[in-house]
C-alpha cells in the first residue's frame, strides 16, 4: 500500500495518492499532499478552493461540477490550472481529501 | 515549462503529394478488387488504395514494419481508416501489384472494401479496462479468423459491419452495427460497504442507476441495491469501486443485429437484441463465432443486392429472421425499458 | 520456447489468417517487461474469465486534466511490471494520415517510456499508447511534445474529434472534413485538455450521408456534409454503367427511398426529380462516375448521439438542416459554443447533451439556440396531445 | 317562430346538407322541456364558448354501480328542466341490429321518462339516452328492463363491449363476432354492472384485420379475426377483376406489404406465397369475389389499447397470435379472467391494463398469463441492453 | 325487485331473415355506388345495404321516422354502423331504388361507403360533458356540410376517417384517425382550495397529473400546480371539481393527421399533430372546416390510389406534407413527452 | 342547495346527496343518509364497511379500491351490493361521509 509521509507519520494513500481514510485529513496533510501535486505552498487562494471543495462535499456528498466551482469561487479554469497544475480533480480534490472524483471536477 | 495545447500534427504535412494535388478534386472511384480502391482526380491522376486488416492492438515493431512497406511502395505515406484498418496509398500504378504481392507474402490481410466485412470496431476488454464482461481483441480475432473469406472476398449482398464492445458502456459504439457483439454482466453488484463509505460519491452513484435500483442507506453511510431492479449495467461500478459486477459465471456475450449508420436508402438504425446470452469461452469463443456466422450467412443467402442486414430483416419481418436463423426467441428480447411500447406489435398482420 | 508454455490459451490465437494481437504482444514482450506481464495477466483472464484491472485511477500530466487513463493491476505482486499501466490518448492528425517519419518518431518515444504496445487507433480516434508507469507520464509527454504530438481528451471534456477521409480521397465530400477537424481541434484546445463540462462531449465530421465516421451514432455533435441544389449527372457515364453489369432499374431506381428517379431503359435516360430527393447517397454510391452531389454544399448538424449510459443509446438529431461550412467556420464554432454553454449551465453531472435535450425538451434547446422549429428536425410530429403554450400566446 | 330567435347561433346549424342535431333538439324540445332547456343552454355555450355542466355526479339504479352518468347544470335557475340531466348507457344488441318494434318500444320508454334525445350510439357503442332527472332513473330502468334493455358499463368496470357486423353481413369475418360478443356480455354481467377494477376495461371484436370497430386503438382487449392456412383463391374471378378496370399489378401486387404476390398479366395468373403473407387483408379487400381468408380461422388477441390519459395513447399489443374462437369460448374467457385478475391485483387506481404492462414489463404479464414469448408479439426486439435474468438462470 | 343482469337484447332476434339465412355464409360484396353495398351469399341471396349519414344526436321522433322507412322498405329491420351511420338492409332488389329515392326526397344523406369520408365519430362536447374544450356535434355538422360532396361521392383515393373528441380524454378515440379534430385547453387549472379540501381525493389528483405538475400543499390541506409543467390536459379536473381548466380564450381546436386502424398494407398508425391551435368559432368554426378541407384535398390530389393519409405522408415525408398543405410548422409539433426521441430525425436525408 | 334532514337539523349535501362538509359527519348522520340509499338500518356488517372506508380514507386520503375493500372486509362484491343496493361508491362511501369518489369504489 503506498504511503505519504506527514511529519514522519506514514498515512495510507491509494495508488493515485488519494488518502484512504477521509477522517485523517488535516490542513497539514493537505500541505503534504500539495507537494506531490506540484503545489509548493498552499496560498490563501488555494485554501479558498480547497475549503470550497470540502464544504461542498460535506453538504452534498459529491464534488461540485467545474462550472460551479469556477462560478462560486470566482476563479476561472485557467487560473485554477495555474494554481493546481494537475487540475481540479487530480490536484485540488486530492489536496482537499475528497474521494477520487468519478464525476466532473 | 512543457508546451501545451499545440494540437495534433497538421494533416497537411501528412498527405502524400498525389492527395495534396487532387485535394477536394477527386472525380470518381472504382472498386478494383477486394481490398483495392482506385480514386481518379479531375486532373486524371490516379490513386490506388490497398486496405489491410489490422488487429489494432499492435507493437511499435509492427508500426515500423508497415512504415517500411509504405516507404518502399508509397513514398512513405499511409493512413488508417475509421475502422482501424491500414491503407497503403499508391500513386504509381506499377507499384500496386508488387505491393499486393509483398503484402500477401508477409501474411498481411488484404480486403475489407466494398461488400465485404470490414475490421470489427472494438474495445479494450481484459487488456486494459476495469468493467469488461469479456475480452475484446480475442473475440475479434476468433470471429475474423472464422469469417476471413468474407473479408478478402465479395460474397455478401451489401456492407456488413461487425462491432464489439466489452460492456454496456459500448465504447465500440456497437449500437448501430449490422452485427454487434456485446459483453454483458448478469449479476447485480456485490457491495463492499467500506469502500462505498470512504471512496464513493453516493448521490452520484444513486443517480447513475438507470432503473432506480440503488437507494441510500444513511445509517450505514452506504447504499443498498434492490436486486430485482438491477439489470447489471455496471454503471454504479463506473461511479464507485465498491460495487463490482464482473463475475466469471455471470459474464458473457450478447448478439445484436440490424443496425446501420449510413443514410443510404434508409435512415440509420439501432441494432436489436437477437441472442441475449452466450458464454465466455476463451480463447476462441466458438458459440459466438458460430452465432455470428449463422446470422451473417442467413442474411447473405436471403437478402437482395445492396440490402443491409436491418433492411432485410425489416422487409421479411423479425418473426422470419428468427425462423430462418433458427435462433430461439427469448423473453429478454422483448423490450421493457423506456421506449418499450414502440416495439410491441399492434397489428394482427404478422407472419407465422 | 519455455515462454510459450505459459500462455497456452492465448497461443491458440496466434493461429488463423487474421492478424494476431497475441503475436504483437509477444513481440513487444520480447523487449519490454510491461508487455510481457500484460500478456500473462491476460492469459490469467482467459483462464478465469475475468479481468484483473483495478477501478479507475486519476493520473495525468502537468496543465492538463485529461488525456491519460489511469490503470493499476489487482495483482501487482504477480505482475509487477504492470502495477502502474496508464494509457495515453494521443491526438491523431485529421483523417489518420501519417508520414512514416512521424510514426517512427512516435514508436521511438513509446519504446523509451512505455510498453511498446499501442492501439492504432482507439474507438474515439486517438492513438492509444498502451501502458506506462506513473513516473514515465510527464517525461513521455514531454518527448511527445517534442515531436509535435499533443494529447487527446478524456474525462468530462471535449473528446478528440474525428472525421472521415473526406476531400483527401473521396469525391463525395461536401465538407472539407480534414480542415474543419484540424481547425476546431485547435480552436477548442482548452475544452479538449481541461475537463469543464457535465460529461464528455464528442464531435465527429463526415463528408456525406454515408457517414464513414459513424458520427450519427457516437457523437454529441455530428456534422454531415450535404447539398441543397441538384445532383450533378453525366448522362454518358450513366449509359456506361447500364452497359456494364448494373441493373439500373433494380439496383438504383427501385432502391431510391423517395422514388424520385426514373429510368428509361430504351433511351438510357435517367431522370432525377431533385425536389423530391432526400440526398440519401444511394444512387451516387452506385454510380460515382455518373452522379455527384450538387454544388451548393454545406452540412447538416445533428446533436445528441451517444452510447446507452444512462437512459439508452441515442442517435443524434437534426438541429441545423443546413449550414455553410467554410473557413473560419465561425457559424459552426458559435453553434458549438452556444450549445455547450446551455448544456453546461443546465446539465446534471454525467448528463450528455442529448439526454439534457430529452429532459428539458427540444423546445427549450431550440430556444436557447435561437433556432426556428422546422419539419426537417423530426421524422414525425408528436402523437400525444401534451404540449405547452407560452402564457403570452394565450390571450 | 319566437322560439327561434332565442337560438340565433344554433339556428345556423340547421342549414346545410348534413343532418342537423339542432333540428333534432328542436323536435324533441317541442314536446319536452328538458330538450328545450338543453337547446338554450347550448346556445349560451355557443355564445360564450364554454360549457355549463357541473363536475361529475354519482347517480344510479338499484343493484348496479354503473350505467348512468350523473350530470347537473351550473345554471339550474336559468335552465331548471336540466337541473338534473343524467344519461343512461343502454347495452345495444350485437352489431347494432334492430327491429323497428324494439326501437319503437325504446322510444316510448324514453319519451316517458327522459328528454326524448338520444345518441345512436355512443362512442363505446351503447345507446345513449340523453338526460333524465334523478327521480326518473329507477322507474325508467324498470321500464327498460320490461322491454329487455339492460344497462351498459360506466366507471371502473368492464365497459359495454362491441363488435363489427361480422358474419351478419361480411364475407371476411373469421370470427362469429356477433355471437362472441353476446356470449361474453352475458358471461361478464357482473363485471359490466358492478365496478370492481382499477379502472375501465374495454373489449372489442373485429372479424378481420380491417378492424371495423377500431378495436386496436380503443380497447383493452382487442379480438381480431384471422387465419392460419392459405388465402382461398378463385382464379377465374381474378381474371374477371383484371378484365374489369382493376390494374392488378399496381393496385394489388405493388401494394402487398410483404411482396408475396406475383401477377402474370399474360396468363392472368396470380400467385400468393402464403408463407410470407401477413394476412393484412389488402388483396382480399380489393378482390373479394376472387380471394377469401383461409379456412383455419380464429383470432389474434391484442391487449392494452386506450386513449391518452395518463401516459399517452396506446394501441393494443399482440399477446395471443392465434386462438380458436368457438363456443363456448372458454379459452378466451379464461384469458380475460386471468388478465383481469393480474391487473386487479397489481394495478394502481386508474391504471389501464396497457399501462400496467408498460409499468411492470411484458415479461411479468406473460409470466402471469403463462404465455411463451414469441416474435409475433413484437415489431422489433429491444434496442437497449437493459434486460433482466432470473437468478436461477445464472448459474 | 328489479330484474338485473339480463344482458342486451339477443341480436338473433334482431336480424332480418336474409341475414339469418346467410349468416356466416356471405360470399362476396360489391360497391354498387356511393352509399350502396351489395352482399351476395353462397346461396346466391342478395342483400343491398343503403347507408345514411346520421347526426347521432337524434330525437325519438327521428328514430320513429327511420323505423317507418325500414318498415316500408326493409321488413322492419335496420342497423347502425360502428361510425354511427344508419343502414337500411334491403333484401328485395326492387325496393332498392324506391328506397333511395324516398331517402333523397326526405333529405337523408346517402353515402359514406368505399372511398368516401364517413360519419365523423364524435363525442358530447357542450351537450353533456363537464370537461370539453369545444363542442362536438356543431363542428361535425359544420365540417360535414362543407365536405358533403366527399360523403356522397367517391372522389378520394382511399378511405379517410375524420373523428372528433372535445378534450384530451379522446372519447372519440381520435388518436388513430386520418384527420382528427381535438378540443384542447391552453390554461392551467384555476384552483378552488375549498373545494379541493372538502371534495377531492388529493393523492389521486396528484397521481393523475401526467407531468408531475401537482404537488401536495399539506399546510393548506390542498395542492399547488406548477404552471410551467402543466400542459392543460384536464386530468386533474376529472379527479377533482376544484380544478377547472375550461376557458373561453384558452380553449380551442387542434388538428391531427395520418392515423389509421386497419392493418391493410401498413400496421395501424397514430394520428400526429399538424395544427396545434385553432380558435373556437361557433357556430360554424370556419378555421376548422378550412383546415380540414385543405388537408383532405391536398391529400386527395397527391396520394396514389388506395393510399391513406398516413401512408401518403410517410411516402412523401412530413416536410413535404407541410410544404404542400402550406400549414406552418410550429414548435408544439415537436414531441417532448415520453417517447419523444423516437420522433426526432436522425438522418441528414430529408427533403428541402 | 339540497339539504338532508338530521333530527330536524338541515345539513347541506350536494346534488348527489354527498355531504358538503365532511366534518359534519356523525354516526347519526350516516344513518340518515343510509335511508336515502335504501339501507333502512345500518347493521354491524354495514358498520364494518363504513368504518373501514372511513379509516382508509383518514389514512390515505382516498377511498380504497374495490378489490381491497372486499379483501380486507371479507365481503364479496355481491354481498356488498346486497347490503348497499346502490353500490359501494354511491352507497357506502356516501354513508361513510367520504368525498364523492372519482376513482374506483
Ligand atoms: C476509408 C473509410 C473512411 C475513413 O475515413 O476511414 C471509408 C471509405 C469509403 N466509404 Fe465508407 N468508409 C469508411 C467507413 C464507413 C462507415 C463507418 C463504419 O463502418 O464504422 C460507414 C457506415 C457504416 C454503416 O452504415 O453502418 C460507411 C458507409 C459507407 C457507405 C454506405 C453503405 C450502405 O449502403 O449503407 C458507402 C457507399 C458504398 O459503399 O456504396 C461508403 C463508401 C465509401 C467509399 C466508396 C467512398 C469513396 O468514394 O471513397 C470509400 C471506400 C469504401 C470501401 O471500403 O469500399 N461508405 N463507411 C472507412 C473505412 C472503414 C474500414 O476500414 O472499413
Ligand atoms: C479506449 C476506448 C476503447 C477502445 O479500446 O478504443 C474507451 C475506453 C473506455 N471508455 Fe469509452 N472508450 C473509447 C471510446 C468510446 C466510444 C466511441 C467513440 O468515442 O466514438 C463510446 C461511445 C460513444 C459515446 O461517447 O457515447 C464510448 C462510450 C463510453 C461510455 C458510455 C458513455 C455514454 O454516455 O453512454 C463510458 C462510461 C463513462 O463515461 O463512464 C465509457 C468509459 C470508458 C472507460 C474510461 C471506462 C470507465 O468506465 O471509466 C474506458 C477506459 C478503458 C481503458 O482503461 O483504457 N466509454 N467510449 C475508446 C477511446 C479511445 C480513444 O480515445 O480513441
Ligand atoms: C359518452 C361518451 C362519448 C360519446 O359522446 O359517445 C363518453 C363520455 C365520457 N367519457 Fe369517454 N366516453 C365515451 C367513449 C369513450 C371512448 C371510446 C370507446 O369506448 O371506444 C374512449 C377511448 C377509448 C378508451 O377507453 O381509452 C373514452 C375515453 C375516456 C377517457 C380516457 C380514458 C383513458 O384511459 O385514456 C376518460 C377519462 C376518464 O375515464 O376519467 C373518459 C371519460 C368520459 C366522461 C365520463 C367524462 C369524465 O371525465 O368523467 C364522459 C361523460 C360525458 C357525459 O357527460 O356524457 N372517456 N371514452 C362515450 C361512451 C358512450 C357509450 O357508452 O357508448
Ligand atoms: C359497416 C362497418 C362495420 C360495422 O360493423 O358497422 C364496415 C363495413 C365494411 N367495411 Fe369497414 N366498416 C366499418 C367501419 C370500419 C372502420 C372503423 C372506423 O372507421 O372507425 C375501419 C377502420 C378505419 C381505419 O383503418 O382507420 C374500417 C376499415 C375497413 C377497411 C380497410 C381500409 C383500408 O384500406 O385501410 C376495409 C377494406 C376496404 O374498404 O377495402 C373495410 C371494408 C368493409 C366492408 C367492405 C366489409 C364487407 O365486406 O362488408 C364493409 C363495407 C365498407 C364500406 O363502407 O364500403 N373496412 N371499417 C363500419 C362502417 C362505418 C361507417 O359507417 O362508415
Ligand atoms: S466497452 Fe466497457 S469494458 Fe470495454 S473498453 Fe469500454 S468501458 Fe471498458
Ligand atoms: S448494475 Fe446498473 S442497474 Fe444494477 S444497481 Fe448498478 S447501476 Fe443499477
Ligand atoms: S462520409 Fe462520404 S465523404 Fe466521407 S469518406 Fe465516406 S463517402 Fe466519402
Ligand atoms: S440520393 Fe437517394 S433519394 Fe436522392 S435520387 Fe439518389 S437514391 Fe434517390
Ligand atoms: S372487421 Fe372485417 S369482418 Fe368485420 S365488418 Fe370489417 S371487414 Fe368485415
Ligand atoms: S393479405 Fe396482404 S400480405 Fe397477404 S397477400 Fe394479400 S396483400 Fe399481401
Ligand atoms: S372527449 Fe372529453 S369532453 Fe368530450 S365527451 Fe369525452 S370526456 Fe367529455
Ligand atoms: S391540467 Fe393536466 S398537466 Fe395540468 S395540472 Fe392538471 S393534470 Fe397536470
Can you describe what's shown?
The complex is a heterohexamer, with 2 copies of chain A (105 residues), 2 copies of chain B (352 residues) and 2 copies of chain C (395 residues). With 105 residues, chain A is mainly alpha-helical. Chain A is 49% helix and 8% strand. In chain A, helix 1 runs antiparallel to helix 5. Chain A is globular and about 35 Å long. Chain A starts with a strand and ends in a 10-residue tail after the last helix. Chain B has 352 residues and is of the alpha+beta class. Chain B is built from 11 helices and 12 strands. Chain C has 14 helices and 14 strands. Classes of the chains: A mainly alpha (105), B alpha+beta (352), C alpha+beta (395). Chains in contact: A-B, A-C, B-C, B-D, B-E, C-D, C-E, D-E, D-F, E-F. Strand 3 of chain D pairs antiparallel with strand 5 of chain E, so a sheet runs across the interface. The structure holds siroheme (SRM) (4 copies) and iron/sulfur cluster (8 copies).
Write the layout of secondary structure elements.
The complex is a heterohexamer, with two copies of chain A (105 residues), two copies of chain B (352 residues) and two copies of chain C (395 residues).
Chain A: E1 3-6, E2 9-12, H1 27-36, H2 44-60, H3 66-73, H4 77-83, H5 87-95
Antiparallel strand pairs in A: 1-2
Helix pairs in contact in A: 1-5
Chain B: H1 17-22, E1 26-33, E2 36-41, E3 46-52, E4 57-59, H2 60-73, E5 77-80, E6 86-90, H3 96-105, H4 137-146, H5 148-152, E7 162-165, E8 179-184, H6 193-199, H7 202-208, E9 214-217, E10 222-225, H8 235-239, E11 252-257, E12 272-279, H9 286-302, H10 309-316, H11 318-325
Parallel strand pairs in B: 7-8
Antiparallel strand pairs in B: 1-2, 2-3, 3-6, 5-6, 8-11, 9-10, 11-12
Chain C: H1 8-11, H2 21-31, H3 33-48, E1 68-69, E2 86-90, E3 97-99, H4 100-113, E4 117-120, E5 127-132, H5 134-146, E6 162-163, H6 177-187, H7 189-193, E7 203-206, H8 215-218, E8 221-227, E9 232-233, H9 235-243, H10 248-253, E10 261-264, E11 269-272, H11 282-286, E12 291-292, E13 297-303, E14 317-323, H12 330-346, H13 353-360, H14 362-369
Parallel strand pairs in C: 6-7, 7-8
Antiparallel strand pairs in C: 1-2, 2-5, 4-5, 8-13, 9-12, 10-11, 13-14
Helix pairs in contact in C: 2-3, 4-5
The structure holds siroheme (4 copies) and iron/sulfur cluster (8 copies).
